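Worked example 3 (structure in, sequence out).
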């Protein structure tokens, strides 16, 4: 009997383990996990909308940010070509080419004929090409760049005047298009034409022509969306962050929930970046044939470049948070990585000890407070990220590397003995 008793105990133990494993999870844990999952999913779904809302509010409320966004368009070759074509077409409507040469003073006629060159083609084509060359010179000069920047800064204290249609100025929304009045640039082109001998250009009246920056058949709907996004720009990121944090804190396995929330946050932001690229193709395909495709593409890329930067920053942040949570966990691979980390720090400390370098009383102090110091460093990195004006993906990576280095210093300096 004594030989069989261990077998009986082992059988009873196995029955007990099977019973425990087959027991359903407590209802409260299932409900808690379900609520945590719902909060995390909602937070992740709000992440792309929060990014768009923040970007819109940033453009609408910060004049310098808006000017910094649109200023590069003045130097874009595609935009310059489109503006020069628009100016040329408008000026050619007012030039009576049949009377062009006879209206020119005899003293100015040689200079005009030299400027026009050999008229191998028709006079219309020659003069049109000549006017376009002068228009291209103007839009490629600092005159056009100053006009572009000054108009957007002076006439738009906020980008709300362009996105919501309120207010007036050189940039406005009319019908289905966001337009810029090129009247000051046309005046500069007229002056240059007169200076080279094309005197009839002086008779051209003041011309106000619109250069389309953005065109859509649903511009009224976009105006409403921008207003809503502008209002939500401050609160949506907060709500998304609260939902994600609440889901992680409510979860039974918080570390696993943090990894899932961080990766979900990164994935939804990445989908927003993909959506921007896909929408660009649809947007350009929907434009009428009269609109310059390269110029429209340049405008779209310029207006969304800061949003793309924010997307990359959020993706980097999500990946780093997920990796940090995983490395701090009890998993076999995570434990192996931590062992390598501590082994490397221990080897470095051994080398400094051999060189006679000691930490003195600092080492034991840092060792006793190493947990508190670690959390303070993490809090410092979070504060730096939150208050960074416009963090990029590289800023996130740089902050993570700086935090990693600071934690390594704490582990290196902290030691139990006084030294």
């Amino acid at each position: 009997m004594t030989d069989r008793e261990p077998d009986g105990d082992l059988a009873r133990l196995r029955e007990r383990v099977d019973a425990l494993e087959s027991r359903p999870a407590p209802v409260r844990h299932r409900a808690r996990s379900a609520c945590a999952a719902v909060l995390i999913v909602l937070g992740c779904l709000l992440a792309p909308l929060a990014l768009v809302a923040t970007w819109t509010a940033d453009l609408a409320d910060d004049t310098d940010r808006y000017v910094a966004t649109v200023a590069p368009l003045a130097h874009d070759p595609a935009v310059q070509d489109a503006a020069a074509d628009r100016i040329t077409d408008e000026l050619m409507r007012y030039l009576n080419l049949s009377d062009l040469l006879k209206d020119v003073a005899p003293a100015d006629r040689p200079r005009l004929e030299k400027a026009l060159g050999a008229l191998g083609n028709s006079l219309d084509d020659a003069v049109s090409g000549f006017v376009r060359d002068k228009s291209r010179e103007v839009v490629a000069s600092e005159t056009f760049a100053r006009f572009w920047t000054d108009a957007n800064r002076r006439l738009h204290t906020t980008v709300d005047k362009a996105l919501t249609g309120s207010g007036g100025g050189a940039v406005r929304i009319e019908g289905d298009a966001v337009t810029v009045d090129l009247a000051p640039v046309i005046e500069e082109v007229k002056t240059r034409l007169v200076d080279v001998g094309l005197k009839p250009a002086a008779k051209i009246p003041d011309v106000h022509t619109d250069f389309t920056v953005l065109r859509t058949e649903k511009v009224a709907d976009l105006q409403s969306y921008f207003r809503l996004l502008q209002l939500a720009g401050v609160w949506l990121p907060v709500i998304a962050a609260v939902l994600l944090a609440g889901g992680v804190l409510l979860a039974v396995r918080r570390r696993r929930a943090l990894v899932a929330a961080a990766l979900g946050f990164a994935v939804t932001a990445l989908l927003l970046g993909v959506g921007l690229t896909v929408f660009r193709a649809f947007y350009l395909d929907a434009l009428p044939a009269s609109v310059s495709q390269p110029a429209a593409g340049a405008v779209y890329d310029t207006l969304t470049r800061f949003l793309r930067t924010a997307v990359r920053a959020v993706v980097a942040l999500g990946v780093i948070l997920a990796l940090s949570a995983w490395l701090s966990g009890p998993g076999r691979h995570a434990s192996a990585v931590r062992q390598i980390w501590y082994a490397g720090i221990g080897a470095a400390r051994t080398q400094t000890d051999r060189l006679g370098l000691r930490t003195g009383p600092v080492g034991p102090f840092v060792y006793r407070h190493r947990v508190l110091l670690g959390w303070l460093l993490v809090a410092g990195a979070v504060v730096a990220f939150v208050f960074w004006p416009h963090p990029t993906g590289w800023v996130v990576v740089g902050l993570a590397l700086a935090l990693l280095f600071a934690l390594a210093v704490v582990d290196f300096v902290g030691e139990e003995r006084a030294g």
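Notes: The first strand starts at residue 171 and ends at 174. Residues 270 and 315 are 6 Å apart (CA to CA).
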